[in-house]
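Morning - flavin-adenine dinucleotide inputs below, output right after.
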Amino acid sequence: MRIENPQLLAALPELGVEHCRDEQLAGWTSLAVGGTTDVLVIHQLQHLPDLVALLGREGAPWRFVGGGTNLLVGDGELPWLALHLASKNARLEFAGNQVRVPAAADLGRTVMECAKRNLGGMEGLIGVPGSVGGALRMNAGAYGIEIGQFVRRLDLFRAATRTIETVPASEAGFRYRHTAFAPSDVMVAVELELPAKPYEEILATIKMCNEKRRASQPLNEKSAGCIFKNPPGASAGKMIDELALKGHRVGGAIVSERHANFFVNRFQATADDLLRLIDYVKERIRQAFGYELEEEVIIWKN
Ligand SMILES: Cc1cc2nc3c(=O)[nH]c(=O)nc-3n(C[C@H](O)[C@H](O)[C@H](O)COP(=O)(O)OP(=O)(O)OC[C@H]3O[C@@H](n4cnc5c(N)ncnc54)[C@H](O)[C@@H]3O)c2cc1C
């Protein structure tokens, strides 16, 4: 989708919005697939309500893209704009065991900054790429922990009411890779509370998690991490592996030989290739186990 209205175009710089025309979203996602649209990069959060009001008046739909590491975006011309928070000035503010983190901050950098102040707990999240906002939306987790367990409160922009609200963690509905937010809610910042731990101890756990990841995941290939959520008490990866589907290929998309729940874009895959591979694997699992796998990756079909 392209912004053509001259008045809207003129208003964007006043709202601190950088207008990136005709972007291939393949360049904004770790799977390296996704069609074309205008991307609006928000540099001044205080203008987010005005921006969303303007887009509403224009009848221009939008979706929010963080680090793009859990997204499967459709091919071709996209019928919506992409909004993105600029991360350049994402500064963490510490007060005792608590830290306020802008949603645009990189998750891995956040874990390390906290570690340097002897604040631990989030070591398992070190290899989860993307932004803090995306991690909150997904309730990202690894190696037995999830970000939601450290959240005290969140600031979020509610597009429905065009207000920025502070909500306690109890209202976020954090569950396994799930939160209760509306699709149009935008995370703005979060207050985390973390247990005190010596830096060296945190580093040792981080090192262990990094080694486990390197040994089991195709980190040098284009992916979105796990494609499916694990069924209760089971592993989606193990189920796919049991059906000998590692290496199964549709177009340029392949079930990773290293981790069966990672689908990688090895040969210039399109979104359609990945979607067909997902459907194929789901059907095989349905036939073999009678179980309906649920996608963890967020799919925005065109
Ligand atoms: C190699 C690799 C390993 C991974 N390992 C893990 C893992 O161990 N555990 C795990 O949980 N995930 C993992 N992932 C998936 C992914 O990194 C996480 O889900 C991550 O938290 C997504 O953050 P993001 O900023 O990239 O979000 P995006 O992919 O940009 O967006 C994901 C969703 O969050 C929404 N969103 C993003 N930012 C905001 C915001 N500020 N406000 C509101 N909504 C927002 C988007 O609209 C979208 O619905 C992995 C991915 C890769 C590529």
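Note: Residues 93-201 form a domain with the Uridine Diphospho-n-acetylenolpyruvylglucosamine Reductase; domain 3 fold (CATH 3.30.465.10).

O.
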